[in-house]
Amino acid sequence: MLALRPNCECCDADLPPDSRAARICTFECTFCADCADTRLNGTCPNCGGDLVQRPIRPPAMLARHPASTERVLKPHQACAA
């Protein structure tokens, strides 16, 4: 089951579980659409995989299986401002 991480690990922008701006790779590294498109060119800096839109968990399922609250922030070279 996806963790639905709450933030972009590049810029730390909030990404609530229903965000259409969340992008993930196959290992669930999570980025906002802006960082994924402009800084990372659609490629995960951790594994080299594609960054795709994260699916939305339906509200009833979100109540039973809540999103993660653990924030992940990593010092990627592409994210350095």
UniProtKB/TrEMBL annotation:
UniProt-listed InterPro entries: DUF1272
Pfam families: DUF1272 (PF06906)
Protein name: DUF1272 domain-containing protein
Organism: Phenylobacterium soli
